[in-house]
């Protein structure tokens, strides 16, 4: 099943499809991708035993952002038909007992799923924090001990981080810092906000002449260059960001062309690595829109950036394949993040 070409905005029917993707996998333990260092038999257990709240959807981070997707759609469509099933699924996962199991795992493995997975966990926290709903407030309280542990571990990890990871997959630094920064601001954690802003400036402020022609670097689902720009627009004033972008991506044309950044193609949608390109098109679209939001309305590059964003949005949404688990276990999150403008300044409900 693919998203119809003319549905480039979200509605309840489309939201229901994305919610169902998560409901179909949130308790599906296998297949499961387990990438971890084992020190003892304690680390050789089933996914459900190791991480009892977030074990489905192939891997921990996909389970986490699947929960985020359900919360995000509940906020946008409070009367939708999928709400009862979504709340039931969230209620089964977000219990004090299961979160204690997650805490125990992070106490043994402090940097588990760093930085990508924990960045999505903080997005889940941020979503619940903003949602003025009694049940959301209860889930928010349940997650607080795990949030604190992860934030403490992150502070140590960020302080010790000497160089950014500039790949286009889970270990990339810029994308994760952006999600973390949004969480820190939403929860009014000023110390963590300052830590993230300082690290972003340390890593990226002096970057120049990045070439997008080398992307994707492999089976990327994130653009290293656009993610960096999408992060810097979060921390720099408009004038400063305008100058920084000129130096960082001088090749952005002003002729409203889309040829300078073509969407990635997937030839085999059942290949778990090739399926990353679906996500790449969607994440490029929201990062381009994020970059636009950091520029003055008079900037001559906006038409070109907007054309490229629309081009990638069209390809990403029309190519959302949901028959095979290679895409269905995670891609809905990227589509919902894009369609609900989650990362855009001034457009977070």
TrEMBL record:
One Pfam family matching this protein? DUF2891
What the entry lists under InterPro entries is as follows: DUF2891
What protein does this entry describe? Answer: DUF2891 domain-containing protein
């Amino acid at each position: 099943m693919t998203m119809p070409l003319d549905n480039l905005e979200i509605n309840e029917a489309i939201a229901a499809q994305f919610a169902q993707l998560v409901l179909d996998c949130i308790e599906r333990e296998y297949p499961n991708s387990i990438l971890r260092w084992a020190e003892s038999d304690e680390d050789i257990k089933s996914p459900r035993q190791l991480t009892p709240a977030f074990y489905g959807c192939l891997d921990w981070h996909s389970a986490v952002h699947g929960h985020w997707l359900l919360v995000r759609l509940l906020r946008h469509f409070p009367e939708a038909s999928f709400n009862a099933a979504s709340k039931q699924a969230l209620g089964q996962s977000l219990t004090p007992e299961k979160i204690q199991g997650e805490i125990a795992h992070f106490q043994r493995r402090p940097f588990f799923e760093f930085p990508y997975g924990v960045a999505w966990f903080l997005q889940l926290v941020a979503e619940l924090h903003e949602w003025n709903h009694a049940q959301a407030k209860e889930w928010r309280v349940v997650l607080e001990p795990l949030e604190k542990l992860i934030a403490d571990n992150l502070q140590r990890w960020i302080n010790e981080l000497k160089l950014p990871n500039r790949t286009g997959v889970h270990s990339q630094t810029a994308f994760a810092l952006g999600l973390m920064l949004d969480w820190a601001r939403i929860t009014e954690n000023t110390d963590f906000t300052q830590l993230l802003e300082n690290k972003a400036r340390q890593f990226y402020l002096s970057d120049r002449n990045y070439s997008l022609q080398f992307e994707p670097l492999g089976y990327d689902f994130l653009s290293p260059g656009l993610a960096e720009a999408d992060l810097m627009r979060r921390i720099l004033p408009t004038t400063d960001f305008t100058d920084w972008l000129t130096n960082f991506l001088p090749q952005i044309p002003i002729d409203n062309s889309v040829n300078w950044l073509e969407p990635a193609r997937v030839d085999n949608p059942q290949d778990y690595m090739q399926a990353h390109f679906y996500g790449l098109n969607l994440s490029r679209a929201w990062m381009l829109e994020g970059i636009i939001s950091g520029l003055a309305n008079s900037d001559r590059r906006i038409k070109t950036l907007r054309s490229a964003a629309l081009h990638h949005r069209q390809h990403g949404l029309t190519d959302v394949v949901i028959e095979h688990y290679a895409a269905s276990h995670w891609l809905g999150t990227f589509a919902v993040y894009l369609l609900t403008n989650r990362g855009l300044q001034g457009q977070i409900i």
